[in-house]
Amino acid sequence: MKDSLKAEGNEPNPVELKEEAGKITAKYENITDTAERSIIFKVKVTEAVKVGKKIVNTAIVDDDNPKNPPQKPEAIITPEYKNGKIKAEKTVNNPAPKLGEEVEYRITFRNVVEHGKLAKVKIKDELPNSLEFVEGSERAEGDNPKPLHVKVKNGIVLAEYPEITDTKERSIVFKAKVKEKAKIGEAIVNTAVVEDTINPPEKPNVAIQPQHKEGVLQAEKTVSNHEPKLGEEVEYRISFENTVENGKLTEVKVEDEIPAGLEYVQDSIKSDGPEPNPVELKVENGKVTAKYPEITDTKKRSIIFKVKVQETVQVGKEIINKAVVDDNNPTNPPVESLIPITPQYKDGKLEARKEVSNHEPKLGEEIEYRITFNGTVDGGKLVDVKIEDEIPSGLEYVKESLEAVGDKPVPTELKVENGKVTVKYPEITDTKERSIIFKVKVKESVKVGEEITNKAIIHVDDPDHPVMEPTATIKPEYKDGKLKATKTVNNKEPKLGEEVEYRISFKNTVENGKLAEVKVEDEIPAGLEYVQDSIRFEGAEPNPIELKMEFGKVIAKYLEITDTKERSIIFKVKVKAAPSKGITNRAVVDDKINPPLEPTVTILPKTKEDLKIPEEPKEPEDPKEPKEPEVKPEDPKEPKEPEVKPEDPKEPKEPEVKPEDPKEPKEPKEPEVKPEDPKEPKEPEVKPEEPKDLKKPEVKPEVRLEKLIKEPQAKVEKELPKTGAAHSWMMSVGAGISFLVGGVLFVLGRRRKQ
Hints:
Blueprint: E1 6-8, E2 16-20, E3 23-27, E4 38-40, E5 55-58, E6 74-77, E7 82-83, E8 86-92, E9 102-111, E10 116-117, E11 121-126, E12 131-133, E13 139-141, E14 149-153, E15 156-161, E16 170-178, E17 188-195, E18 205-208, E19 213-214, E20 217-223, E21 233-242, E22 247-248, E23 252-257, E24 262-264, E25 270-272, E26 280-284, E27 287-292, E28 301-309, E29 319-326, E30 335-341, E31 346-347, E32 350-356, E33 366-375, E34 380-381, E35 385-390, E36 395-397, E37 403-405, E38 413-417, E39 420-425, E40 434-442, E41 452-459, E42 471-474, E43 479-480, E44 483-489, E45 499-508, E46 513-523, E47 528-530, E48 536-538, E49 546-550, E50 553-561, E51 567-575, E52 583-590, E53 600-603, H1 608-611, H2 691-694, H3 701-708, E54 715-719, E55 736-741, E56 744-749
Parallel strand pairs: 7-10, 19-22, 31-34, 43-46
Antiparallel strand pairs: 1-4, 2-3, 5-6, 8-9, 9-16, 11-15, 11-17, 12-16, 13-16, 14-15, 17-18, 20-21, 21-28, 23-27, 23-29, 24-28, 25-28, 26-27, 29-30, 32-33, 33-40, 35-39, 35-41, 36-40, 37-40, 38-39, 41-42, 44-45, 45-51, 46-50, 46-52, 47-51, 48-51, 49-50, 52-53, 54-56, 55-56
Transmembrane segments: 729-748
Protein name: Gram-positive cocci surface proteins LPxTG domain-containing protein
Membrane topology: Peptidoglycan-anchor
């Protein structure tokens, strides 16, 4: 055994002392005395050895001297059985027999000690007075050894076994009959005595309880209301009883599968009647279940529960509810109890609302009204639903827009007459939504921002039902505005260093339209210099919320313009250069919705040389010219003639030039043009490829010069830089007449370079 190995005796002690793989080893060195020394250890006799068979244990003691052979001392043991111990129990095949029934008793015992021995086993069982031994029913069961005897004497069962050395079960079995005089429900305890003559005896016992005779079950089912309305609750009662006096119903089980169309009312199940109460009472997955233990009286008991008639059931169609009551006795078939109910309609109730597709429509826009209603009572009935809607002033019905949406029944009347919508439905027995839809147009004449409320009236043919008046309100809004913008300048031919005033004008062109935001931007081009503090605005309120000049850009911002009045942003610039093509100023006017507008205006600044040319008043031959009222006879230099296109030489602005003259540019004779009027050719300098900037007629300068003098002597001195910077050429006044047109310098006579 572990840790039992030790050495005893004088020194020296063993230099080695161990147990390894079931082998004991001890080693001593240099023993020179004659004292006794010992090696001691313990072992355990295993359960596997055979009882009575000797076990020899041999040791080898060697002094490692060839002259002394090893010593082999032995020890012998003989294993014997352990003392056994008995364990016994008693069972009966029916602990609750009926009066007159037989029961079987079984007395079972065994030795519980492995390799133990029971020298003798005696069994004794004395039957109680309420039991009667069944003759010839005694027997023994189990392996050898068999009992020496099994007998019954004066109501006492006796058995005796010889020596038992195993642990197997053995039994003494016999039958007894419950006497008719036994008291029902009173336990009969049967005790056996099992002893092994050594240990205290075992006294197993078992009780039986005589039971009643088989009962007979009777059941019925009732309902509180055979014609409930949809949604109403009804109460079912399943009653049963035992009809046999002193009979017993071993178990009573009640089941009721609630049919479709009925819904169990939560927590409504209960039992009624004397004890015993049901051991199980529940509703699970639509099934009522109740279970009673044995019932030995003849009193009535009931299971009660409520159900609600669902809204979806068909009115007038019977719903049959079946209960099954079973006493779990194969000789008694289950009792089935049927009870019908016939659902009826409930009183309906209406719910309605009115909706509009757009609560803030623009003037002139169409909107859609939807009157929606439904019954709110499941299984209720609405009779003769009538809907009326008087379209208010300010709205105009859109022809053929009226429609009904929803399940059947469809309306029996659906019309619009004299601005009034009328719809009628027959009886409605569901809770589905139905809608009446129609469109109206917001009239242009209504006041923007003033609410228009449209009310529908819904009647039901029921004096107890209130009239429903759902409403929907709209607030007309402005239409989307549209922007128009122009740009003008007070002087299209200013002198270098002069100030000119620009005016950017805009307005909303849509009556009852709204521009949520208008932003004006004007990037002042090169050649012009903003005149400090000259920016201002004109026009009706609202005033601009932003008005500034920043980094060479004029910026103005307006919010929410709802009229069609003209407003202007005005500022001044100083002319700092005179480019040949003029200076074009473009503004950007944006309402954040429509594409930005870009009104432009071009000026042609004059130099001192331009001013030296004598003026010749024009004699307009075409009084139809509507767009040059500002051109005075002494100022024929106006470069902006939008009516004169490059390909149209018939521009009436040149009264001396007849429509057929441009086709003969080398014609020297033109009596209307005098040689002392050299300013007339200033307008043709606009080149044909750039008509969009200055919009000048496509009259070539050579044509005009040859008309001024019979023998052309004018020559192009040099074209000025595009930027409008001053040029270094100088003209001699005495040598001839010089003038500048569109950045080109002309000289009549000769020229001289300085």
